[in-house]
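Regression report. Comparing outputs from two consecutive submissions.

Submission 1:
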Amino acid sequence: MADYCKGTGLPVVGGKVSFYNEDQSTKRAIKPSPVVLVVGLVEGMAQPIHPNFKRDGERIVLVGDTLRELGGSDYYEYIHEFTGGASPGVNPSRDRKLFKSIHRLMRSGWITAAHDCSSGGIAAALAEMCIWGGMGATVEADRIPSSAMAFDELLFSESHSRFILTAQSNQAGKLVEELSRARIPHSVVGEVAGTKLRISSRSIGMISVGVEEMSDSWARSLARVLGD
């Protein structure tokens, strides 16, 4: 972690790692939990760029490659009851270049929303952007920059250094041009639209979930776990 932070220039000012904490009721240890405090500065912008979708018709751009990296993911553990697999790899020099490009785009004023795709993968990130914005989206999974993999792996892979960006239709071309110039993998995968999250693929057809349904599931998740 220290080598990565040095390689990418991330200013870590504190943190904590818990390896042996146990639940007092069940006496079961929680998973190892590294917590890192990173400090950043927002400057030169009227306001920070938030992750929620803003308006119909905005283009959705996925930045970064998706690989078959689901080791340690909640999807593997809770859906397939499997805890092995390949964990996401890191590349500090590649990531530093990508982060600088994303930062330049944010300062350009072309980006209207931005969200990372680490925890939960692309599917979770899109769902969160829909929930927080109260808006739907239409996405073509076959456009996602990736290696060959199953559809569920594509949606839930937790490969690092991937972002979902949105831009107005008349600004999306500038965003794509800048990413192409920097030789960063990217693709326009869809647009903000309607009241449902729709993800289509030639191999499996269409997944369609209402924003209201996702919002209710997201808001009540803790209550369900606690048995309320």
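Submission 2:
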Amino acid sequence: VPSVTGILKVLDKPALLAWSERCGVEGALRMERSGRLTYMDGSSVPVEDAVREVRQAKEGADAKRDAGGERGLALHEAQETYCELGDVPNVGDYDPEIRGYITGYCRWLLRDEPEPIFTERVVGSVEHGYAGRIDMLAKIKGRIVMPDLKTAAKPYPEQHLQIAGYLSTFPECFPDIEVDEGLVVLVGADGTFETYPC
């Protein structure tokens, strides 16, 4: 069946288009200024070839998207450490480019002290024909909350829709569990975090 995130790809995401364009332009400028869009004879790479060069050099949106995926995997690894061992992860165990995000996650853990009910659980709806994987279901200050970790710079509407999609499977998957709130947890490269109730 299709995934919640796959279904949400049908939404118009103008911010994603702007982000992608910005990544490509920034990558091309970095390469141009460092001489990497210039041939050995001093001539410039033709404009129509610049996109290919930026992609091959991993300076564009594809590389940033892939790096975001790596950050997400590291965050979920940190979450497993917390949920399985009850320990806040050691930030020093992670690559320097990811440490800020892990620091933000650890700060959220220390502030909200989630008590995991379960993690990385596949959920789905036979009635509506879709599935997905939730990050965590936890008790936070006596309430049952579904936090969803994100490394985006700001919240986007589709993040809330993703959580709503997961929550709508609960009557079929976990009819005895009543979730009080969905929660987007944004962690930043600078070691900060923000939470946004859904």
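Expected: both submissions complete independently.
Actual: both completed, but the second showed a warning that disappeared on reload.
Relevant detail on submission 2: The first helix runs from residue 4 to 8.
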